[in-house]
Amino acid sequence: MTARTLAAWIGKRALGAVLTVLAASILIYGALRLVPGDPVLALTAGRRLTPEQIEAVRHRYGLDQGFLQGYLGWIGDALRLDLGTSFNYQTGVTSLITGRLGVSGLLVAYSAVLAIGFGTAVALVSAVKGGLVDRLASVAASVTTATPTFVAAIGLLALFSAGLGWFPATGAGDGFADRLWHLTLPAVAMSIAAFGVLARVGNAAFAEELGREHVEVARSRGAGGAAVIRRHVVRNALGPLLTVAGLLVASLFVGSAVVETAFGLDGVGSLLVSSVSRQDFPVVQGIALIAVLLFVTVNTLVDLALPFIDPRVTVGGLGR
Amino acid sequence: MLAKTTEAATHRDALGITGLSLAIGTGADTVPLLAGVTVRVGRGETVGLVGESGSGKSLTARSALGMLPRGARTTGTVTAGGVDVLGAGRRELRDLRRTRVSMIFQDPRASINPVRRVGDYLTEGLRARGVSAHAAGEKALDLLGQVGIRDPLGALRRFPHEFSGGMLQRVMIAGALSTEPELLLADEPTTALDVTTQAEVVGLLKDMQRAHGTGMLFVTHDLDLAAAICDRVYVMYAGRIVEEAAGSALFGAPAHPYTRALLEASPSVHGDRAVIKAIRGRPLALAESPPGCSFRDRCPLADDACAGAVPAHRRHGASTAACLRPEQVTP
Amino acid sequence: MTLTIPALRARSARRRRRRPLGLVLAAAFLLAVTLTGLLAPVLAPRSPDATSLLDSLAPPGTAGHLLGTDSTGRDVLSRLMYGARLSLIAPLGVVLLSGTAGTVLGLLAARAGGWVDAVLSRGMDIVFSFPSLLLAMLVVAVSGPGLLAPICALAVGYTPFVGRVVRSAAMQEGARPYMESYRVMGFGEPWVAVRHLLPNILPMLVAQSALAFGYALTDLAALSYLGLGVRPPAADWGSMISQAQSAILQGAPWSGLIPGLAVLLTVVSVNVLGEHLGGSIGRKREGA
């Protein structure tokens, strides 16, 4: 793989990602125009506005122009990090979101660590041990995979917060340790389904690699049990695991909407939910755009990492 | 650990398998796989183990490394490199595999981890023994040169998929020899290769074995090949050894009807044999064999006497064969 | 260490053929939930909306309230039975819409090929890159709370989930020799697709739809939980949990946990069923 083909391939993937985000942004912008009737009514959602204000909204959203012009105006502003003004808060959407990114970012990172750490650990142990351990892990994975985030949230609230009183029920806490303590139950609730998916996919990947001939050959050469697992099983299963982990981490962001609402956290997710129910469309659009951007970015990065993890995945093969 | 190979040890065989029987499963589900297998490989000797698939030849070879199927029950003894394999603990087995016995497998493409570099494969065994990375690298470089890989330094940094099957099998041979073993188990090392590269790899294997003074158990279904390169040849059928013969004697004087049938079935013409044309029926596993001689259903010489008991090995010419009437096979 | 021994393989195959207990339980549970939903007016002990502040937050097992009451004294069992209706019908709507659209688009992409395939595939990829719950929220932000808009949004969101699988299955199936022979005999493309292609990919379609049903149920319940789904007085399991939130913090969690468990068990059952359908197809393919 020469540097030139590598650069061309990375460029191609990046271009594909940009196009996907652009297409999604058309969808996000276009949702406003899909409603029957006057979009301004949806935008203002019953709020009493003066004709001047209505005209301002109309102009702000390019509703006095054609679809394409309106969209170009909106996306152009978004590229300059101007996501418009919230109807509800009367402040810039960008600053509304950035002010809450700290809590949401930590929450997503925390739950990603939990899901990936415990998920791969359970997957590995169950694949290696087999037998009863494997069957128990498989049942646990099936149940956790199907557990909706909000069911996990209220279950944890009922047990550890209201019941045992170990963890606080609301708020994000102050200072790092206190914040981690406050975010533990939300992070667990958010990570449960992702844990289940990783435990299953990981188990399948590890079991497949364990059955490979080269693993038996390594053992025939006297490689130690732990070394065989690390060097030949875990290493080889890294590709599929990373792909799934990427998808899951990206979807955690949407899960944060539910969890932040359930635990009364002041993050981007709860802002999205309250803005949806207040029909504060500029905020919803802004958050949706960022979510899609994150989702596509994470998955593109994973795609780009794959050839470096598995040398058989050739750049040319992926670059099609 | 190498120091353990003492003066006394040099006088013993590289491999001694005596009366090995092996079964898996329990109760009514018991499946016998090997019965009374006796195989000996002297130091520096090349011994062939020939049979059709399902005859138990690979299983016999793997038993020398203690690589038995899950839940296998055994009787008999297996001594490899002076170690009682069947009685050995996990640590002893690991040491044996790291130092004294190496195995070469059928499909090099499947046997080498595809996501690790060739250099990693070659040095893995040495590094596990505590050899420094530098010394292991030097050794790997030397061995790659010996097995005829061009640009050995570059090869160390390449991945398996960048090699042809024949080249990869050379890498595997180099890897097997990296630990200076006294016994090399070669399990159909040429079956997965192109015909043109087969001869090269066999030649290389013989050269390397001679140069390093290693005993070799060469497992194959190709009787002609075994007879050509081996000092002695064992022929297996349905989990049992049916004939042991000097490699040179095999073509001229097979002592077991199955051996003769194998020679007949091969397309090359070795002389004037006309009695047995083709082998009737299909090869059986030990579990489905009839009582008495396992081959009797397919044997043109069989009669009621063959159904009585498993025939004992008896001498006939330069061979021993488990047959009641070897003189009818080759007078 | 794996040695392939025919006798061993035969034995494990025999073990696999037994009908798993999980599958029977899952099917029985789904049947029970469907029936209670259908027969709610007959089976429910009380009206789901009858409040009684005197009886509020009664624990399960209270006389007359088998599963207890919620914070306004409504009977949890009755609400659960009535709630099953919306909780099941709404995702069914999503599955029917997305299944139809996905099948049509998937078949079209596979059979037409060329630029039609390129456009459809890329479009499905883009929709797929959009988290379905986010899509639903976006629509609710425009239309206001209610189930109809999110059902349509989720139907769009899950169309690629079905469509991509239909497309690849149809491509595989379409490459088989018998398909070519039909075309040679002069049968039209749509006729071949509907008459011969569709039945062959139907089991896979059902399996994929079962999984989509589970996801849609979760998404819709989450919307209702967030107050963005069903509008009161109508109720589904998600809105029951939402209304129980404060009771949970007061130490009376059952009015939330019981519908939560209903959601969880339904999704698990649907997944088990879907996986079995998908798995048995895989095995059949292997055998052929």
UniProtKB/TrEMBL annotation, chain A:
PROSITE patterns: ABC_TM1. Coiled coil: none annotated. GO terms for cellular component: plasma membrane. It is a multi-pass membrane protein. CDD domains: TM_PBP2 (cd06261). It is found in: Cell membrane. Its main location: membrane. Residues 101-302 form the ABC transmembrane type-1 domain. Pfam families: BPD_transp_1, BPD_transp_1_N. This is Glutathione transport system permease protein GsiC. It comes from Actinomadura macrotermitis. The gene is gsiC_7.
TrEMBL record, chain B:
It is found in: Cell membrane. PROSITE patterns: ABC_TRANSPORTER_1, ABC_TRANSPORTER_2. NCBIfam families: oligo_HPY (TIGR01727). It is a peripheral membrane protein. GO terms for biological process: peptide transport. Residues 15-263 form the ABC transporter domain. SMART domains: AAA. Belongs to the ABC transporter superfamily. It comes from the Bacteria. The keyword Transmembrane helix does not apply. One of its GO terms (molecular function) is ATP binding. This is Putative D,D-dipeptide transport ATP-binding protein DdpD. GO terms for cellular component: plasma membrane. Keywords: ATP-binding, Cell membrane, Membrane, Nucleotide-binding, Transport. The lineage of its organism: Bacteria, Bacillati, Actinomycetota, Actinomycetes, Streptosporangiales. It comes from Actinomadura macrotermitis. Pfam families: ABC_tran, oligo_HPY. Its main location: membrane.
TrEMBL record, chain C:
The keyword Zinc-finger does not apply. It is a multi-pass membrane protein. It holds the Pfam family BPD_transp_1. Residues 84-274 form the ABC transmembrane type-1 domain. Signal peptide: none annotated. It is found in: Cell membrane. The keyword Cell membrane applies. GO terms for biological process: transmembrane transport. The chain crosses the membrane at residues 21-44, 88-110, 122-141, 147-166, 205-228, 248-274. GO terms for cellular component: plasma membrane. CDD domains: TM_PBP2. Keywords: Cell membrane, Membrane, Transmembrane, Transmembrane helix, Transport. InterPro entries: BP-dependent_transpt_permease (IPR050366), MetI-like (IPR000515), MetI-like_sf (IPR035906). Coiled coil: none annotated. PANTHER family: OLIGOPEPTIDE TRANSPORT SYSTEM PERMEASE PROTEIN APPC, PEPTIDE ABC TRANSPORTER PERMEASE PROTEIN. Belongs to the binding-protein-dependent transport system permease family. This is Glutathione transport system permease protein GsiD. It comes from Actinomadura macrotermitis.
